């Protein structure tokens, strides 16, 4: 338009020079304004379009769709899931992408620099980065959190909101806690599907730092292991007594239901349960169902009450008891000279077969000045006394009772009291990665029963030698802590790692068995 005006003006007789100058100025201003508005328009378009398209491109590049962390698709944390990956090309149109992804995208990539982006992707845990991909059965609440008073809100496949650690259902305290392994594993694996950085409480920082050993997948064909979230130990603790009107107690009822549930599952039938993970940590838990489900990998405290066909070290994982005394963590604890008691033992003395060595040792040690060896269940105000006793003793005795293992070993470890293990059949947690001889003293039962043998051995351990073991105890204590949110190297992560190692040999078996499935012959 401006141009047309200029041309028309030129046709007319020449105006005076001052008019021509004014006209030239007006034309210059008009052209400048036009250029400026064009630039502004283009620029604003770039600003709107850039974040989405840039992010879409990046995500296509690093093959981890943003949908993994948006919560839109938290049922498919795998990132491999075709549903979420097909939606990535669809978002290459910036406008449709912005509509679909705007909320989460802005939260995740607000002008994030390269460094920040890299840090974030490192803290994200998905099926690609985890060592173990875990499928969790959506058992009804009565098998797990229902026992903790959580009602499940009537939905069949519901799980508690685990974003706020303090709001998660609590396990009953006291001695029940010793076998609470299934509870900690379940909380941890549920939280693995949360986007990093979520959480409503002050604990969300810790959830973001969740180690990436195991991750939950909802696509069964991606799973390395099928986790059965039955709180078997609590079921034994709480529901073993027959209530009025019941023909079988609730513990038995739940086990029967569980067997029925699993036997109907395609995933169980496929490999006969071999790639399933069940946690009957209490030696008496799942007494009725353990044989029927024995193909599965168990997480146990020991093999004392199992026949070797049902449970053995080849397929099963030994997990620590949760300690009940106060833990020193990796912090300072009384050193050699601040521990006046040489050897400490407190527990029941008269036990069934296998625990005879306790009685023998009691006779040998009861009159020694610097030995604390007494009866007493932990029940009567015992936890506080045990905490005090173990933290003022150099050595803590772990003597086979009616089962080869006991919580005392783990109470001793977190008290930094060097354990003396007198239990020939004991199996120790994570022994393939931990060398217990660095922080424990092992004594054969036959030797311990000889007069004078044990005291001579313990008095012969020098201050330096003892201190070396004590330093090592400080280092390993964290491997025996159960907590939620879980932290790197704690008992929860150690168990997942142990399961992952064991699954390798299970998978070797399964793959070998599958060699000829194409040609039809069954082995
Ligand atoms: C699960 O994963 C497999 C293998 O990657 C894939 O073929 C299948 O379509 C997936 N199933 C669902 C429901 O996403």
TrEMBL record:
Q: How does it sit in the membrane?
A: Single-pass type II membrane protein
Q: Where is this region: Disordered?
A: 72-100, 105-124
Which UniProt keywords are listed?
Answer: Glycosyltransferase, Golgi apparatus, Membrane, Signal-anchor, Transferase, Transmembrane, Transmembrane helix
Q: Which residues form the Exostosin GT47 domain?
A: 130-456
Q: Which GO molecular function entries does the Swiss-Prot or TrEMBL record give? A: glycosyltransferase activity
- The transmembrane residues are 21-42
Q: Does the keyword Hydrolase feature in the UniProt annotation?
A: no
Against Pfam families, the record matches this protein to:
Exostosin_GT47
Q: Which family does it belong to?
A: Belongs to the glycosyltransferase 47 family.
Provide the protein name.
Answer: Exostosin GT47 domain-containing protein
């Amino acid at each position: 338009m401006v141009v047309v005006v200029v041309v028309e003006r030129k046709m007319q007789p020449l105006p005076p020079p001052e008019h021509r100058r004014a006209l030239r100025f007006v034309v210059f201003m008009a052209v400048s304004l036009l250029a400026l508005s064009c630039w502004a328009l283009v620029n604003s378009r770039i600003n709107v379009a850039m974040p989405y398209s840039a992010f879409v491109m990046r995500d296509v590049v690093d093959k981890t769709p943003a949908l993994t962390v948006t919560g839109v698709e938290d049922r498919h944390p795998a990132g491999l899931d075709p549903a979420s990956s097909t939606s990535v090309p669809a978002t290459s149109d910036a406008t449709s992408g912005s509509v679909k992804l705007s909320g989460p995208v802005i939260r995740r990539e607000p002008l994030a620099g390269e460094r920040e982006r890299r840090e974030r992707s490192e803290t994200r845990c998905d099926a690609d980065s985890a060592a173990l991909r875990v499928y969790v059965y959506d058992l009804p609440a009565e098998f797990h959190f229902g026992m903790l008073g959580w009602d499940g809100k009537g939905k069949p496949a519901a799980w508690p909101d685990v974003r706020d650690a303090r709001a998660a259902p609590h396990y009953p305290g006291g001695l029940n806690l010793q076998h609470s392994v299934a509870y900690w594993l379940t909380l941890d694996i549920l939280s693995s599907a949360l986007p990093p950085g979520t959480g409503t409480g002050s604990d969300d920082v810790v959830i973001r730092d969740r180690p990436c050993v195991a991750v939950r997948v909802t696509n069964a064909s991606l799973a390395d292991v099928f986790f059965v979230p039955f709180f078997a130990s609590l079921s034994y603790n709480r529901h073993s007594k027959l209530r009025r009107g019941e023909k079988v107690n609730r513990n038995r009822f739940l086990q029967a239901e569980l067997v029925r549930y699993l036997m109907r599952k395609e995933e169980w039938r496929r490999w006969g349960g071999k790639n399933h993970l069940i946690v009957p940590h209490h030696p008496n838990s799942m007494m009725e169902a353990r044989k029927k489900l024995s193909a599965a990998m168990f997480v146990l405290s020991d093999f004392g009450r199992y026949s070797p066909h049902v449970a053995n070290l080849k397929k099963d994982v030994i997990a620590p008891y949760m300690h009940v005394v106060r833990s020193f963590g990796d912090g300072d604890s009384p050193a050699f000279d601040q521990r006046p008691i040489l050897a400490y033992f407190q527990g029941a003395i008269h036990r069934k077969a296998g625990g005879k060595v306790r009685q023998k040792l009691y006779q040998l040690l009861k009159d020694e000045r610097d030995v604390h060896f007494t009866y007493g269940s932990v029940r009567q105000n015992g936890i506080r006394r045990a905490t005090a006793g173990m933290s003022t003793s150099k050595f803590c005795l772990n003597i086979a009772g009616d089962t080869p293992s006991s919580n005392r070993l783990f109470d001793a470890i977190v008290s930094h009291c060097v354990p003396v293990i007198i239990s020939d059949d004991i199996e120790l947690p994570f022994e393939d990665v931990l060398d217990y001889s660095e922080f424990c003293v092992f004594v054969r039962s036959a030797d311990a029963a000889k007069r004078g043998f044990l005291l001579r051995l313990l008095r012969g351990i020098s201050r330096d030698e003892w201190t070396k073991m004590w330093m090592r105890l400080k280092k390993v204590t964290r491997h025996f802590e159960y907590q939620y949110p879980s932290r790197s190297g704690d008992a929860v992560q150690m168990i997942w790692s142990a399961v992952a190692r064991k699954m390798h040999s299970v998978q070797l078996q399964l793959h070998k068995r599958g060699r000829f499935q194409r040609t039809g012959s069954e082995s």
